[in-house]
């Protein structure tokens, strides 16, 4: 068994605690903590070797010896290697003098008497210079060689210290460890100075010359009182004295008093490696950022490219971002005019969807595949991100939630750095940027150069994120790019698929309420019906039900009845994957092309679905990211205007048709869509067997109406 060679003069530092070697024998080493009430530790030699190898313990040889004790008493924990090269050369020059004298003394050439030593100084100097020449190996001699030879008193002082300690630190100039050698001031002056320092530690942030003036003004006032009492006056203090006192103030306290605690924590707080996150989607950081770009704030429903609109509102958009900490990938971003909980929920929903189709539609060359089930979301204290509705939605989806400490952005350093990347890499490429502060902005006329709209900002953001940021080497990933990190970590740890689309719609869908009828429920002019909904209507009648709508997919809606959410499909075919925006635009175009028709047949609708798919791709690409939110109010507006009076009926052949019965309306679409008038009744002579617009009034028909208020 290997035995440790330790002595009672050695010390063992056990995880930061200084321990004395109290006892050592061939089997056990007993360590006793120095100071405190901690019990002693008894370890075998093998166990102690293991602690040394692991780095938990370390040994200080001779720590309690006289040599080390004298060194600590004089120089503390200072190291010779930390001194300047000139100071090091001076120390070893003194050692050469000591060693040369001791060698001459041993050979009987000199003694320590004043007469003998003083007479031998010149000979010692020659030997010291020759010794230094030999050690330099032909290199230039150090500057210390030109110093005058020491007197006998100095030399004997060096020799006595060197003989006792044999430690070079003992020959370092003692004034090196004496602190400030400045001229000291009196007690009364120091009292005034310390009292006035409180004025410097103030948010008003006075300067050092002003503090110096105030201190001397008070000293002069005290001198006036002392003169009347016959006492000697106090001398005024210099500005350098005041500045030295300011340097001695704790920097954190100084910054906190003058700039605030948050600024002190940000400026002087320590940084680490952050939380170790290796699994994709394990930790998602969310935050909102006001984009450094002046843009045109388009009002909902207005075409900002219309030259007739002269007075357009200008402002800055906000973007809400969801960021995966493990892969440094941006999972989602949502543009808005102001932060709101609806955008925060839309960002969560987007983070759990594959966005490759969106990226392709916006011209990206690589896919945006980063998505899946989120396990834990970390947010700051933004109002939208701490809203009760936001927290409730995450809880229903089984997603963890935590709020970082306010005023400490380093706790969300990864996503904060993303915003910095956008500000420094993307914003300089866009006209109309506002910069981070007025100093950086200078005279740049941001409002004058405003050219971008929500659509162009969305495209620029997505192109930058997908094609630039996700393919750019990242220092936090050891110069790997986020796309490669996503692929590697998903292969290593596995990928977590998101919850089903129905479950997501139950929790994150737009909140509506509808009264059911025999036809089911109507949302955006579309009937939704199921067997379970029919039975519920037969049992409970037409009381209002909670509805959840996915604005990107009108194929199903979520209806709450029977103490559970149920996915109810659309009655008409082809609605799967159709967004509200595309459906509204399609209905608008259908009516534009059928102004003179009293009925819109299902075959017309079927032919329009091809156009809907094209519209949907465009609308989905930017509306899912852009600032126009499909909210419950937006749905009601669309129903009141675009879908007003829109019904589906079944013809005799079984084909559903759309019927339009509506009065004159006033609204956004009223100038574009005139009221549709029913054509005059046909006479018997004008009837034809092939006319499919006539129906027998006695023939039962299934009807698709806007609502069932008249049921």
UniProtKB/TrEMBL annotation:
Residue segments, region Disordered: 658-711
Compositional bias of kind Low complexity: 679-690
Superkingdom to which the source organism belongs: Bacteria
Domain Integrase catalytic: 276-490
Descriptive protein name: Integrase catalytic domain-containing protein
Species annotation: Paracoccus pacificus
């Amino acid at each position: 068994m290997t035995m440790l060679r330790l002595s009672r003069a050695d010390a063992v530092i056990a995880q930061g605690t200084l321990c004395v070697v109290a006892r050592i024998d061939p089997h056990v080493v007993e360590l006793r903590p120095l100071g405190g009430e901690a019990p002693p530790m008894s370890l075998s030699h093998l166990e102690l070797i293991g602690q040394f190898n692991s780095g938990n313990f370390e040994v200080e040889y001779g720590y309690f010896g006289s040599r080390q004790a004298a060194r600590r008493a004089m120089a503390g924990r200072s190291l010779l290697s930390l001194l300047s090269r000139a100071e090091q050369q001076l120390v070893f020059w003194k050692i050469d003098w000591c060693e040369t004298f001791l060698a001459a003394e041993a050979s009987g050439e000199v003694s320590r008497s004043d007469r003998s030593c003083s007479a031998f100084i010149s000979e010692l100097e020659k030997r010291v210079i020759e010794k230094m020449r030999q050690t330099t190996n032909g290199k230039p001699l150090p500057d210390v060689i030109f110093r005058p030879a020491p007197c006998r008193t100095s030399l004997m002082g060096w020799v006595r210290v060197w003989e006792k300690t044999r430690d070079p630190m003992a020959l370092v100039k003692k004034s090196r460890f004496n602190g400030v050698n400045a001229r000291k001031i009196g007690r009364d002056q120091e009292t005034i100075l310390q009292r006035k320092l409180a004025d410097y530690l103030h948010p008003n942030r006075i300067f050092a010359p002003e503090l110096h003036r105030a201190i001397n003004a008070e000293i002069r006032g005290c001198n006036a009182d002392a003169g009347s009492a016959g006492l000697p006056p106090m001398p005024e203090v210099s500005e350098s004295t005041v500045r030295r006192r300011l340097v001695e103030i704790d920097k954190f306290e100084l910054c906190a008093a003058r700039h605030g605690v948050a600024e002190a924590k940000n400026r002087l707080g320590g940084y680490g490696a952050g939380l170790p996150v290796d699994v994709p989607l394990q930790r998602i950081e969310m935050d909102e950022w006001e984009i450094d770009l002046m843009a045109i704030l388009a009002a909902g429903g207005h075409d900002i490219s219309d030259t007739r609109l002269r007075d357009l509102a200008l402002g800055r958009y906000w973007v809400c971002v969801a960021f995966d900490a493990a892969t440094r990938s941006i999972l989602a971003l949502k543009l808005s005019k102001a932060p709101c909980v609806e955008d925060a929920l839309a960002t969560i929903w987007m983070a759990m969807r594959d966005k490759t189709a969106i990226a392709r539609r916006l011209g990206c060359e690589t896919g945006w595949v980063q998505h899946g089930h989120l396990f834990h979301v970390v947010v700051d204290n933004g109002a939208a991100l701490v809203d009760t509705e936001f927290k409730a939605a995450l809880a229903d989806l089984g997603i963890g939630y935590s709020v970082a400490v306010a005023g400490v952005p380093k706790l969300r350093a990864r996503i904060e750095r993303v915003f910095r990347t956008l500000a420094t890499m993307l914003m300089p490429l866009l006209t109309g940027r506002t910069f981070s502060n007025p100093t950086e902005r200078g005279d740049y006329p941001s409002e004058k150069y405003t050219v971008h709209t929500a659509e162009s900002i969305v495209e620029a953001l997505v192109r930058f994120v997908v094609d630039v940021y996700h393919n750019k080497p990242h220092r936090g990933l050891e110069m790997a790019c986020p796309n490669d990190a996503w692929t590697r970590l998903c292969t290593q740890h596995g990928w977590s698929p998101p919850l089903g689309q129905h479950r997501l719609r139950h929790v994150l869908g737009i909140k509506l309420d509808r009264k059911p009828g025999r036809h089911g429920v109507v949302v955006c002019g579309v009937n939704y019906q199921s067997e379970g909904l029919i039975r519920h209507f037969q049992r409970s009648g037409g009381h209002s039900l909670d509805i959840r709508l996915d604005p990107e997919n009108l194929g199903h809606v979520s209806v709450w009845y029977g103490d559970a959410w149920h996915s109810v499909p659309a009655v008409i075919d082809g609605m799967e994957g159709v967004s509200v925006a595309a459906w509204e635009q399609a209905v608008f175009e259908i009516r534009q092309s059928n102004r003179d028709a009293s009925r819109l047949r299902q075959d017309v609708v079927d032919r329009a679905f091809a156009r809907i798919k094209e519209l949907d791709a465009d609308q989905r690409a930017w509306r899912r990211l852009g600032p126009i939110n499909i909210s419950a109010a937006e749905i009601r507006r669309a129903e009141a205007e675009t879908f007003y009076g829109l019904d589906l009926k079944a013809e005799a052949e079984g084909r559903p048709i759309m019927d339009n019965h509506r009065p004159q309306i006033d609204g956004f679409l009223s100038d574009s869509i005139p009221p549709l008038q029913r054509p005059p009744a046909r006479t018997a002579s004008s009837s034809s067997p092939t006319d499919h617009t006539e129906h027998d009034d006695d023939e039962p028909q299934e009807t698709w109406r806007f609502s069932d208020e008249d049921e």
